Amino acid sequence: MSTLGDGLRLAVGTFTRIPSGSVTLDDRTARTALLLAPVAVLPLALVAGVIAAGVEVGLPPFVAAGLVLLVLAYGSRAMHLDGLADVVDAFGAGWDRDRALTVMRRGDIGPMGAAALVLTLLLQAGAITDLLGAGWRGAVVVAAAVLLSRSVCARLCATDATPAAGSRMAAAFVGTVPVLAAGALALVMAGVLALTALPQLSLLEGRDLLRGALMVLLALVLALLAPTLLRDKAVAVLGGVNGDVLGAAVEITLTTVLVVLTLAW
């Protein structure tokens, strides 16, 4: 099996619950998997987009938003949400690294992690509901935001990133992606999101069009900035990036992009 094939299978098995079989893990396979993460998640994003587009046939936008989040959680084993909760609990445990790592590895969810999950899902549901006011055009944007959010893992696993000690996922993935390759993937996914926003932006005129374009641009900038800030915080508190940090980056990026896009139209 080629590195490309193994990498895609690893990406599918890592980012979705779709069975993909066993893969021999090495730096090349890990790098390929991270760069192909949006491809691996494409079926999940398409299902989410189709469900979201159900507003065109009478599905209430808030119900559609709830179903989208249900599909994303089930299709990813809710591992990104779990990572977000663990990271928030660890960051809230104080500046002592050993204590933060202990809290993260404990497995249960503390009050800060629970609050982060509830508030994040509320923000995502509210933002998706608002975007679906644009019908199928909003649904396409939501699907693209899902793909973009998964692509940020490559940036956190670039060669300039530090793996957290004691993390098997960090040891396998962090530091395997060239910085230029991670940057190229980010630009490609930014272009995909911008293209999916064009059908709705084309309906705007004058100041509304300018505001919409600026909000899309802001969403893309924050999609690049938020994971970087999270990585730096993880290095300061945890000593580096681990699997939970990758999951948190996915959820934070998705939430940020969706919320900012609600200001676009």
TrEMBL record:
One of its GO terms (cellular component) is plasma membrane. Its EC number is 2.7.8.26. Keywords: Cell membrane, Cobalamin biosynthesis, Magnesium, Membrane, Transferase, Transmembrane, Transmembrane helix. One of its GO terms (molecular function) is adenosylcobinamide-GDP ribazoletransferase activity. It holds the Pfam family CobS. The chain crosses the membrane at residues 33-53, 59-75, 109-128, 134-158, 170-197, 209-230, 242-264. It is a multi-pass membrane protein. It is found in: Cell membrane. It catalyses: alpha-ribazole + adenosylcob(III)inamide-GDP = adenosylcob(III)alamin + GMP + H(+); alpha-ribazole 5'-phosphate + adenosylcob(III)inamide-GDP = adenosylcob(III)alamin 5'-phosphate + GMP + H(+). GO terms for biological process: cobalamin biosynthetic process. It is an enzyme of class 2 (transferase). InterPro entries: CobS (IPR003805). Coiled coil: none annotated. Its main location: membrane. Pathway: Cofactor biosynthesis; adenosylcobalamin biosynthesis; adenosylcobalamin from cob(II)yrinate a,c-diamide: step 7/7. Its cofactor is Mg(2+). The keyword Transmembrane helix applies. Joins adenosylcobinamide-GDP and alpha-ribazole to generate adenosylcobalamin (Ado-cobalamin). Also synthesizes adenosylcobalamin 5'-phosphate from adenosylcobinamide-GDP and alpha-ribazole 5'-phosphate. Belongs to the CobS family. PANTHER family: ADENOSYLCOBINAMIDE-GDP RIBAZOLETRANSFERASE. This is Adenosylcobinamide-GDP ribazoletransferase. The gene is cobS.
